[in-house]
Amino acid sequence: MTATTTLPAPAAPSRPAARRSPAPAARRRAALEWIAVHTVALAAALFFLLPFVFVFLTSVMSDDQAMSGELWPHEWHWSNYAEVFSTPGFADWWRNSLLYAGLGTLFTVCSSVPVAYALAKFRFRGRRTAMLLVISTMMLPPQVIVIPMYLVWAQQLHLSGSLWPLIIPMAFGDAYSIFLLRQFLLTIPREYLESARIDGCGELRTLLRVVVPMAKPGIAAVALFQFFYCWNDYFGPQIYAAQNPGAWTLSYGLESFKSAHSVNWNLTMAATLLVMAPVIAVFFFAQKAFVEGVTLTGVKG
């Protein structure tokens, strides 16, 4: 008779521990944190948005209702914008601002990109000294050199009364734009450049075909900074174009408009909104590239 041995039954597979739901106190704390963060963000958004709402509502009010203490217009006077735009000289100010901002941005980008590329990727003696010289020009206030520069443009070149003394210097680079672009170009791996050179690309072709497409966020940030600066510039047109109303920009002509319509607050607000509208529109359409360029996040694979 053979003895039989009984094997132990296999152990039942252990069930994973049930996921515990967060405690009520933790859920309540998370909800309070969410409310606090979004409340602060909403308050900050209203803080920046309410002045624009006030300007807009005042711009569509009648002359009697504007600045009367009432916040909502009785009737929407959209004709205020047409009246502002039909003011003698306003269309010329628009054209001059577009010329100044457009050419200034184009010249600054085209002249700053090659310099930034050379300072970021070339190895030559005196490279650090050249970069220090570029940065040092950022520490010099424009008011220091305004008198000798005005004498050169007015007496030697006879270009006073126009915007060309402000546009032409931008074709020779801008220190801040060069610095920002150099910092962005440093994030581009050198292997891309070496691969382009192996394929037979020269430095100019490498810059145009490889570096510029990869540096679009940085270039967009520089272009927006320069566009905003030119569009809002008041000091430059006051120095060089004050004696010629036909060369005024919107930022400088708006002061004259306010003086002529000091009691018509609805027209003044409408003119102010027309001056701000292009800048706001450009920023909203290009804010993604602007933020990416400013933060210098590097190259995405």
Account of the protein in words:
α4 crosses α7. The radius of gyration is 30 Å and the shape is flat. The termini are far apart. The protein contains 13 helices and no strands. The protein has two domains: 45 residues, no CATH class; 215 residues, MetI-like (MetI-like fold), CATH 1.10.3720.10. It is an all-alpha fold and 301 residues long.
Entry keywords:
301 residues, mainly alpha, MetI-like fold, 2 domains, 13 helices, 0% strand, MetI-like_sf
SSE topology:
Blueprint: H1 24-59, H2 79-85, H3 90-121, H4 127-138, H5 146-156, H6 164-167, H7 175-185, H8 190-198, H9 203-214, H10 216-232, H11 235-240, H12 250-260, H13 265-295
Domain ABC transmembrane type-1: 94-286
Region (Disordered): 1-22
Family: Belongs to the binding-protein-dependent transport system permease family.
Bin the strand percentage: under 5%
**What's the number of extended β-strand segments?**
0
Average residue pLDDT: 82
Return the CATH topology of the largest domain. MetI-like fold
Radius of gyration: 30 Å
H/E element sequence: HHHHHHHHHHHHH
**Main beta sheet:** none
Low-confidence stretches: 297-301
The CATH superfamily of the largest domain is known as MetI-like
Helix content: 55-70%
Domain ABC transmembrane type-1: 94-286
Membrane topology: Multi-pass membrane protein
Organism: Streptomyces coffeae
Region (Disordered): 1-22
